[in-house]
Amino acid sequence: MNDRSDKLFSARLSDLTEQCRKNNCCTFSSFLDERQCAEAEAWCRRNTGELMYRLWGGFSDARRRMLAIYPDYCEDFVEEEYPFVCLTFSYRKEDKLTHRDFLGTFMGLRLKREVIGDIVVTDGKAQAFFTEVAARLVMSTVTKIGKVGVKVSDDRPFELEVVQEYKSISGTVASLRLDCLVSLAAHMSRENAASMIRADKVDVNHFTASSVSQELREGDIISVRGSGRFVLSAVKGMSGKGRIHVELLKYI
Predict the structure, then answer these.
(1) pLDDT of 78 over the 90 cut
(2) The pTM is what?
(3) Is the pLDDT confidence value at 199 over 80?
(4) Is residue 115 within 8 Å of 130, Cβ to Cβ?
(5) For residue 66, which of 77, 75, 247, 192 has the smallest C-alpha distance?
(6) pLDDT tens digits along 83-137
(7) Which residues, at least 6 apart from 205, have a Cβ–Cβ distance to it below 8 Å?
(8) Which among 130, 167, 183 is positioned nearest to 249, based on CA atoms?
(9) Partners of 202 in the β-ladder
């Protein structure tokens, strides 16, 4: 995010918090992407005070989630209270559809991305989350995804297995500095990696990287514009020449 969008996003979160306090009820954001979720969690820790908050997207590993802010007496707050709907799309297994096919159809309805949550696609079935208004539009208008006929229902819970595929990248680095790891991950020189970081084109754990010398740890997520997203999955010790063996996993 740039400074302007940061301020606008913070203002939106502040409005949700004030509405919760004023009306003594739960308030919800739209669907947030992973970076916004990280920003929202950090903001809530600093600013919600006595209020409670939770991010939820319909299943435990959802990337796109809604923020709920609610009074501390709502101990019985449950996931079903989130104002989104899981829609199930059924079609022939031989008709191969992708995440892009579904998202393209939904965007063709002029739906904003913030009203659409995660989209999970398998053979013959897909499930996606929508705000209640967007779900009604999809239910009433979508009969095809691309050229493939689909049946849409809203009476099934989320039940698909989310499988994330990775490509393994192994190598050695001089240190666990960010510029070293970006160089290995994106197959570029250390100098070019440093330039990317200084140009704010690299994120670590969904936040813009602050320094080329930032030290990383196992589990950290690196996003490099134009090259993809990676996780530092393992630090495996030293080589005979004093370099560090590491494994990165690239999201496919």
Answers:
(1) no
(2) 0.84
(3) yes
(4) yes
(5) 77
(6) 999 999 999 999 999 999 999 999 999 999 999 999 999 999 999 999 999 999 9
(7) 38, 220, 221
(8) 167
(9) 224
User: How many residues appear in the chain?
Assistant: 252
Residue-wise pLDDT tens digits, 7-39: 899 999 999 999 999 999 899 999 999 999 999
Confidence grade of residue 75 (pLDDT, cut at 50, 70, 90): low
The dihedral sign for the CA sequence 61, 38, 221, 119: positive
The residue whose two tokens read 């754990």 is 205
Task: Specify the amino acid at residue 252.
Answer: I
Distance CA 106, CA 134 (A): 9
SS (H, E, C) the chain: CCHHHHHHHHHHHHHHHHHHHHHCCCEEEEEECHHHHHHHHHHHHHHCCCCEEEEECCCCCCCCEEEEEECCCCCCCCHHHCCEEEEEEECCCCCCCCHHHHHHHHHHCCCCHHHEEEEEEECCEEEEEEEHHHHHHHHHHCCEECCEECEEECCCCCCCCCCCCEEEEEEEECCCEHHHHHHHHHCCCHHHHHHHHHCCCEEECCEECCCCCCECCCCCEEEECCCEEEEEEEEEEECCCCCEEEEEEEEC
Q: What is the arithmetic mean of pLDDT over 48-73? A: 93
Q: Write the single-letter amino acid at 223.
A: S
Q: What is the CA radius of gyration of the chain?
A: 21
Residue type for 161, please?
Answer: E
Burial 135-166 (b: 16+ CB within 10 A, else e): bebbeeebeebeeeebebeeeeebeeeeeeee
Which of the four pLDDT bands, split at 50, 70 and 90, describes residue 6?
A: confident
Instruction: Kindly report the backbone phi and psi dihedral angles of residue 122, in degrees, each rounded to the nearest multiple of 5, phi listed first.
Output: -130, 180
